[in-house]
Amino acid sequence: MTDDRFDAPSDASDVRLAVIAAGAALEHAGVEHGEYEAVLLLAWAAGCEPGDVRRAMLMGETMDVFLSHFAGMPRSVLARFDDALRRRCAREPLQYIVGTAPFRYLSLDVGPGVFVPRPETEMAVDLALDWLRSACIPGAGTRIVDLCAGTGAIGLSLVTELPASQVWAVEKDDDAIVWTRRNASRVLDGIAGAADRYHLVQADATDAATLAQLDGTVDAVVTNPPYIPLATPPEQPEVIDWDPHVALFGGSDDGLHIPVLLLRRIRTLLRPGGLVVMEHDITQGAALREAALRMGFVRPRTEPDLTGRDRFLVACRDGE
Length: 320
Ligand SMILES: C[S@@+](CC[C@H](N)C(=O)[O-])C[C@H]1O[C@@H](n2cnc3c(N)ncnc32)[C@H](O)[C@@H]1O
Prior knowledge:
single chain, Rossmann fold, two-stranded antiparallel sheet, 13 helices, transferase, nucleic acid binding
């Protein structure tokens, strides 16, 4: 760690003081909730729950007493904790360091090369599930497409939460699809028949040839595409320095180039009356509703995220 205010904890040091020192070093590096993350990283290094670290802090335990409760060798746990702190102080995403990110009921593997799934994207899945449960016949082999799959967060959630659904996922990037495959086998292997209901394709999702065999038959397309306007790149180091740029930028100053190409492709994939849910930037609600109307979607609306900001286009294909 470059910060000279932080000394790696020794096994004789007090857990509480070690966490406070680590939290201060993280905040000095610009991490917002330093102590909270220090607890998570120590728990990860020790292979225990964050609550175990908090309990040790309250009890005034030394590191060697705390670590004696768990399997790891104290020295290797402390080395792991110190290495994790160095990486986090360099603003590497917490999820890359611990190797997983939570998404709905899943814990997904993540690391350099794949976009870390965000909590707000869970709402895109909710919007689709609410509609699918009311508009489709249960067990009838509902057809769903997840364009721009990344870790597989959206498609893997849908295929595990909606019994008998068939899900196709499309990812074009060589590095990202390694993670999609890895998550698909980890999530689906334990669920009878699920692997046969999830179909992963490496392709450009804007290309008319991609999933052309499904044209006009898909019940719902859910997508979190690259949409960040080139004119306003994100400043957070965790995003701009670590998330793959192919996952971030929408290909034009307003970020709408790729989302609009996808919307056109989605219009062709959907059956009459089928649903699209597309996550987007807070500036893009009106433009996407207008683009959807121009392409022949009906009743386009914009749904907010939990902070009340415009984040999701929801529309149905015309012709039902
Ligand atoms: C914002 S990330 C979303 C990942 C995941 N769906 C999620 O919500 O966490 C966008 C993903 O789209 C992929 N991507 C970008 N352009 C694409 C294209 N034309 N066709 C297919 N995938 C694309 C990127 O590699 C990245 O994995």
